[in-house]
Amino acid sequence: MDDQSKALDFYTRILGFKVKNDVPLGEYRWLTVVSPEAPEGTELLLEPGEHPAVQPYKTALVEDGIPATSFQVDDVDAEYDRLLSLGVSFTVEPMDAGPVRMVVFDDTCGNLIQLIEMKGG
């Protein structure tokens, strides 16, 4: 399975994104996913990691515990429980951080992803 297929599986089956674009481009494809709640909103590009700069960059971020991206959710604790039940590996368990409640997990593709919930109203 190529990295894009692995990413597609994780981001759709586990995280719940929906495919927006899946266009073959030679060995790879233009592959984007969107939130089912905002199909015309921001697209996440599932980019192949073959460029020589990608792996050192991703490795450095993970070693320093820096998420590659962050997504806002309504209930971090509920998402944590749901993802944990699906076998997702967390590097930071639910915690309060200033105005947000947050968690960080491994997306199985070499990235750390942060989920945040805005506290208060």
TrEMBL record:
Q: Which CDD domains match?
A: VOC_like
What is the scientific name of the source organism? Flaviflagellibacter deserti
Pfam entry (one): Glyoxalase
What's the name of the protein? VOC family protein
Which residues belong to any copy of the VOC domain? 1-118
InterPro entries the UniProt entry points to: Glyas_Bleomycin-R_OHBP_Dase (IPR029068), Glyas_Fos-R_dOase_dom (IPR004360), VOC_core (IPR037523)
